[in-house]
Amino acid sequence: MTERLATWVWVGGAALACVAGIINVVGFLGFQQQAITHLTGNTSLLGAALVGGDMRAVLHLGAMIAAFVGGAALSGLIVQDSTLRLGRRYGVALTIESLLLLAAVPLFRQQHLGGPVLAAIACGLQNAMATTYSGAIVRTSHVSGMFTDLGIMLGHAVRGMPLARRRLALCTLIISFFFSGGLLGAALFARIGYATLYLPAALTGCVGLGYFAYRQTHLRPSV
Q1: How far apart are CA 37 and CA 34, in angstroms?
Q2: 67 exposure class (CB count in 10 Å sphere: 0-12, 13-18, 19+)
Q3: Domains located in the chain, CATH noted
Q4: Which residues form a coiled coil (predicted)?
């Protein structure tokens, strides 16, 4: 029998995937025209920049990669576990993510490298907050793994193997909201530019403060 996903996992996963979709599309439409929420393309570009001797690009890309890793390390310090579980310090992590995005906006407007670097720290922090829930992989900042999981499940279905419905639902949810975030972010960027990042900052800030309040009211502090 497929285990039912907790409501807060559905809501949190959808919201954070939408946030990542908005941030990433701003990175592609912005002055650097580079991904922010994932490192695959940036790592390839870094290799090409090194071979081509483009040290400016090497500096920018290296800073983006280091920033994402630094954000993930910060999450490790704060949350201290990769398994989704109520009672963790997600409120603190999300509030910090919100502040990072707020600080990134004026730097983006000045076309300063600090803008995408702060956004990359925020995304690394978000993505590392939780990587598993009840055996299912949860990645809210990029969807390569989710599309891979969908392909695996399609292959299983063709072979007549049992379908992991919980995993399928989670993949579909995160992909859909990441895509929706990209659509929303692109539409807003065309109208208000880098101020688009105020929306994910507001979302993460509200969720972070709300979770902190819920944890203080309903959950015993974790030791």
Answers
A1: 10
A2: buried
A3: 7-213 (1.20.1250)
A4: none
The DSSP bridge partners found for residue 133 are 136
Measured in residues, the chain has a length of 223
First to last CA, the chain: 33
Whole-model pTM: value is 0.87
- pLDDT of res. 223: 38
Q: What is the pLDDT of residues 8-58, one digit of tens each?
A: 777 888 888 999 999 999 999 999 888 898 888 899 999 999 999 999 999
Residues 95 and 110: their CA atoms lie apart, in Å, by 24
Smallest CA-to-CA distance from 124 within 168, 93, 89 is with 93
Cα–Cα separations (whole angstroms), residue 203 to 15, 65, 123, 218, 223: 8, 24, 14, 22, 28
d(C-alpha 144, C-alpha 217), whole Å: 37
Query: What is the CB neighbour count within 10 angstroms for residue 222?
Result: 12
CB 13 within 8 A of CB 169: no
Higher-confidence residue: 96 or 2? Answer: 96
Beta bridge partners, 136, equal 133
Question: Helix H segments across the chain?
Answer: 7-29, 40-52, 55-78, 90-109, 114-128, 144-158, 165-192, 198-218
